[in-house]
Design goal:
Blueprint: H1 3-15, H2 24-37, H3 41-51, H4 56-60, H5 62-65, H6 72-77, E1 84-85, H7 92-95, H8 103-113, H9 121-137, E2 144-145, E3 156-159, E4 162-165, H10 166-176, H11 182-190, H12 195-202, H13 206-217, E5 226-227, H14 229-257
């Protein structure tokens, strides 16, 4: 798909009428590593040209790592780019982005920048890292916030006796409790991604990603504030699917952006 057509589709999503890091380092690296396995030859060449030996797994966490950097860009401009807000029963197209922007407006911006040969290499590298990260963010259900509890950050609970909140639980605790490295997660998840599943997931639009996350978000708030084994048993299958989908869709997005012509 030509770049202009791809960006036009995304702009339609944005113009038709919440905060925190997503997935944690392990989850983001899983999405980047899965994406790396599904890149086209043209996209792989473009990624290597921009990043050199830096992998997509490494690039995936960079926007979160930079959030403590001084300066207005990181402390103000980029702060709201990690999430979108969609109240229950609404669609993103009905709500639209806030004045300061969100993950969708940022994805539009960086999708244009990464393929702009007039920009400095450093700007295009930044754009690529953000693209990988933002698509991952949009697949974490609590990064499609409901507008009332800061993406689950205000929903306090105890997980195996430890005080936490729902956002942190989905960012990292469900993942880390499995005691797997990101490479183990990647190998196990990618082995189950059939060509048919990859094709199906790749065809989804950003509006679809957000709608999926919103629907999942509304099902993951527990009745009890004291959770342990049962919560993981119920929700780990969905978490695994979201990581897998994010990886495939990062690759699909980059494959389209870097498609010749």
């Amino acid at each position: 798909m030509p770049v202009l057509v791809l960006l036009g589709c995304l702009c339609c999503v944005l113009l038709t009428p919440l905060p925190a890091s997503a997935w944690g380092q392990t989850g983001h690296r899983v999405t980047g590593a899965i994406a790396d396995r599904h890149l086209s030859s043209d996209a792989r060449a473009a990624v290597q040209d921009l990043l050199g030996v830096e992998t997509l797994a490494e690039a995936s966490t960079w926007p979160d790592e930079m959030r403590s950097a001084p300066g207005r860009f990181w402390q103000e401009t980029a702060e709201p780019w990690h999430y979108v807000t969609v109240p229950p029963g609404r669609r993103y197209a009905e709500v639209g982005p806030p004045p300061r922007g969100d993950a969708m407006t940022a994805l539009t911006r960086f999708s244009a920048e990464v393929v702009d040969p007039a920009l400095p290499r450093e700007a295009r590298q930044r754009a690529l890292r953000f693209i990988v990260h933002l698509i991952g963010d949009l697949h974490q259900p609590l990064h499609v916030g409901n507008g009332s509890d800061r993406g689950g950050n205000d929903f306090q609970l105890r997980y195996f006796g430890q005080s936490t909140n729902l956002h942190r639980l989905w960012d990292s605790q469900l993942i880390d409790r499995q005691q797997l490295s990101y490479t183990e997660w990647t190998a196990w998840l990618d082995a189950r991604i059939t060509p048919a599943l990859a094709a199906q997931w790749s065809a989804a639009t950003p509006a679809d990603w957000i709608a999926e996350s919103a629907a999942l978000r509304d099902r993951i708030y527990p009745d009890s504030r004291d959770q342990s084994w049962d919560y993981g048993f119920e929700h780990l299958p969905a978490l695994r699917e979201r990581l897998s989908q994010a990886g495939v869709r990062i690759a699909a997005w980059l494959n389209r952006l870097f498609e010749p012509g």
